[in-house]
Amino acid sequence: MNAVLEYALMLAAKGIPVFPCKPDKRPYTQHGFKDASTDPEQIKAWWAQYPKAMIGMPTGKASGVWVLDIDAAKEGETVDGYASLEDLTAKYGQLPATRKHTTGGGGTHYLFCYPKDGRRIGNSAKRMPPKIDVRGEGGYIIVPPSVNASGGVYTVKDKTSIADTPDWLLDLVSPLPERDKSKNATPEGPYFEKYRKHYREAHIKRIANLSVYAKTAIMREIEALASSIPDMNRNANLNSTAFALGRWVAGGELPEDDALTMLCDVANLIELDVDETAKTLESGLSAGMKEPRNTQRPSGETSTDSTAFAYKVYSCAEILNIPRPQWRVKNVLPGIGLAAIFGPSRAGKSFLALDLAFAITRGADWFQWETVPCPVLYVNLESSWGLQGRLKAWAQDTGHTLPEDLHFIIEPLDLQEGEHVQGIIQAAPGNGVVIIDTLNRATPGADENSSRDMSNIIKAATEIQAAT
Predict the structure, then answer these.
(1) How does pLDDT run across 109-126, given as a tens digit for each residue?
(2) Which of 63, 182, 305, 379 is paired with 406 by a 20 to 30 Å CA distance?
(3) CA gap 44, 63 in Å, rounded
């Protein structure tokens, strides 16, 4: 029996669903990981049809596993996932012994038990250093003994039982469940349940006589502080909250004793040092009291709706301290967000987009701008023959081999169809870039002058961006 098929059947016998993937890691099946099965007859039929298929395993609840994917630096790259992992563990602590796989590209998969406390781990690496990816709910990995298109073999590096995720890593890759889905909901941190149980009701009673507007704003600040994550700027959060409450104190809305009591309660709850807390409160409150705030509104504005959003007001100093954006291509393409290349027909937009994709996958400067390397999925909706010509021309002109981390979709699609959007998300690399060429062909029948059509298109693009 085919060794890969034999291993796939073994996984299925353990209740772990599998599905066949092409040597370039893309699924053979129409719905990818959603088609994964533990049915031995189905699995045998797949491998009879695709005898050289690699084994795809869904991550997340289906398998009970999520994966920390460490990518090794490729030739010419200066960023290395193993170095990034060393930086992480030096800051937060060592990873526990757990099962590890070597990937076909020389990287390592660290397997961890998927959390059972309601926390969701997706496929985003937004809070992880470069070359470290996350595969969770809605994703999949290739498992041993699969062999990729380059002959790289996936192997078991460490047979240790799959470990639970350490708290610090879980806080980085997974937000806790939201308390509610309203636009005013505050994300919960590990301290919030204790806050809700021991302090929240008392705090609400303490400020019961304030205006609805003031109560909403003050409780939002306090609850945000109670939602702090361990080792993630807790003291800075306390300073910011003290500043905000100091403004209400100076505006005559909130007694200073009440502000101090509420702040000290939460500071103690989130385990801040007593001496450090005293200094931070003095500094934050004093600064806030220099900028009084109260519920007086501009003339004609009289709303006291308890559901009104309480905006955080920033000082000039706070604005200047907002972190600068991270770039995928410096000053051109943001690390997180959307961008567009536009110009007249036949101006060379597709050549430019493809050259950008080459630069990003290689970590090479694009013109004079630095890039942060990552995988790229290029949705090519023009002639595949034309794409062949561009690939050959680029390789011949630059003398470089075509990058392994650049993949393509060439089938027609429609961003106005939810299934097509989900298909792109399924095929897209985690912590990568998706390029869609062209917008016109990706939105057949849409009117670029229609605000409704363009709103739907931007919504689809944002959904893809958020999921990848």
Answers:
(1) 999 999 887 778 887 655
(2) 63
(3) 20
